[in-house]
Amino acid sequence: MKVIRSVKELSQLTEALRSEGKSIGLVPTMGALHAGHRSLVDRSVKENDVTVVSVFVNPTQFNNAHDLATYPRTEEADCQMLEQAGADYAFVPSVEEMYPVPDTRQFDLGEVAAVMEGPMRPGHFNGVAQVVSRLMEYSHPTRAYFGEKDFQQIAVIRRMVELLGLDVEIVDCPIVREPDGLAMSSRNVRLTAEGRKVAPSIHSILAESTQWVNELTPDEVIDRVIALTNSENGLEVEYYQIVNALTMQPLNSWPKEGEPDAVGCITVYCGDVRLIDNIKYPRS
Fold first, then answer.
1. Does residue 42 form part of some domain?
2. Which of 34, 37, 124, 203 is catalytic?
3. Domain count of the fold of the chain
4. Overall pTM surpassing 0.90 (yes/no)
5. Cα→Cα distances 187→86, 145, 199, 269, 270, Å
6. What is the pLDDT of residues 201-229, one digit of tens each?
């Protein structure tokens, strides 16, 4: 595996590969890689001739300076994992390389970005669109791979791809969980010992809530999930919404056959660590 730090080198390389008819898979990451990232890389390696993985902590998508400063950075371990996974190239640029001048673009991301993470993290999704569009421009991917843990983010990226008319297939991949159900996240390393013990309750409560579809409305399920989660010592729900899987808009009733799935999206503070998760609800 080759480590590339130059935008020019990556762009020239991948443009040549595409001109040779090679398919390119892009896996954008912010590093601190774990088995969830590994699953994205594995799928890209399986489905493409060449796999490029970016490792870049993108400052424009952080609206919290503390979160940016404390985000884990483990470049050496990340590159070892990527080489073992069979990635062809790791793109590890500096902030100055990615943003030689400030990116002032504003994306009209529409309704998918107007709920949940949108108002909670102003500017976050615009920053995501900025960096992912640049990564796609530089790597000329055939397909790009994203984990469903960031469920709303995938909808935002699809919208960005549509806005820019990019010729790339967005591939969403299932959440990878720890044996106790906790969704794998780079932020998990920041959990205290007590926090790590209680954090799996987030998923267990969501999983239990899928059994309530026949007896409760979406709003009633939301209220119960929030109450149960907040009753766990050390957990505090920032929001929980049950939304249309395509539009991200809140649902007042369960979807009928042929309609998009209902997905419950939650953000919970475990101490000072912000964790996200989601779950798909069955048809009633």
1. yes
2. 37
3. 2
4. yes
5. 25, 20, 12, 11, 11
6. 999 999 999 999 999 999 999 999 999 99
